[in-house]
Specification:
By secondary structure, the protein is of the alpha/beta class. Helix content is 44%, strand content 14%. The longest helix has 16 residues.
Length: 433
Amino acid sequence: MSEKNFIEELEWRGMIHTIMPGAKEQLEKEMTTAYVGIDPTADSLHIGHLVSVMILKHFQMCGHRPIALIGGATGMIGDPSGKSQERNLLDETTLRHNQEAIKNQLAKLLDFESDAPNAAVLVNNYDWMKDFSFLEFIRNIGKCITVNYMMAKDSVKKRFNGEGDGMSFTEFTYQLLQGYDFLHLYKTMNCKVQLGGADQWGNITTGTELIRRKLGSEAEAFAITCPLITKADGTKFGKTESGNVWLEPRYTSPYKFYQFWLNVSDDDAKRYIKIFTLLDRETIESLIKEHDEAPHLRILQKRLAQEVTTMIHSKEEYEKAVEASQILFGGATSEALHKLDEQTLLQVFEGVPQFTISRADLQDMPFINLAAEATKVFPSKGECRKMVLAGGVSMNKEKVADPQQAVTEADLIAGKYLLLQRGKKNYYLVIAE
């Protein structure tokens, strides 16, 4: 067993919401197995999932055995917790594809491969639910839990009290299926603890109740939940204007991922650095102290973004993201700009005005013609000339000294782009096609 105490570790990090009596004693007594359910509705996790994955990571680091349960069967139904609408159902091929993709992401954080007794395990509840007949399920499981018990759960009550369009029988049975998962893992893998978000308390306690009723009061099973992470202003964590922040670079590039963490508020950075990094208490406390002495330096946000981007992507992707950020906000050089790949370049300058010109026209075109005729960077040649001579215009991060300077294909970044800058903050992207 590790010297670290799992509950104490999570408590100082602000990652405990509710602990069922006896859970702490169970974890101190022996190596314990616990699971977290992960919804496989996409082929990538997003940062909302990261809280429960970090909890599994701490669980494993404290010497216990984590199980990541992909909810293949329950994903076909949809969990009513925190939802006011039914969700779309998935077919098996999609579920299997999503499971594989999620496992690859989890493997960056959890040790599945070693021969250690607490190596992580990935399971899919579809594997034990697919051959369970309806009659068998309601006879063996349905009779153990009363409707009154199920109706008392908050997730059910809210939907019955007019949130959304009510609740189908399918969704109503969700807590029985999740409860059965816990019973199955308890019997087959000696899994005694279920971990999850605070909104899962109702579903998790249905599982502990089902275990008690099926196996007798000496069968001990426990629940530990973590708080739902919100932003300091109370809005939902992990969402941006363009949607979820994904761990898969095809959906959220490492640059955008890095920017998300870099732009969190001071209050959020103080909480998130405890939740989403593995930095120890002493390091975090000294970072917070340093940050409070000079908040404008954004020390916390920079370290948070570094730790999480490196952990999810790589050190190399983190360094590329930093370099890309400096191009937009710092004094990066022309050389750094030319090193950017096309995808990152477009993301860095997403939202800046863009102009398209013909590549054929770009044969020794004078800069003044490019900036005031071929594009509308300047309203007139006179204004362009005046600002160039005052030293306020750059192309590809290099000052333009002469308005008649020739622009050629050799100047293109990634063989296609020119970056014009008017003053300090006005960027324009010219695309040669």
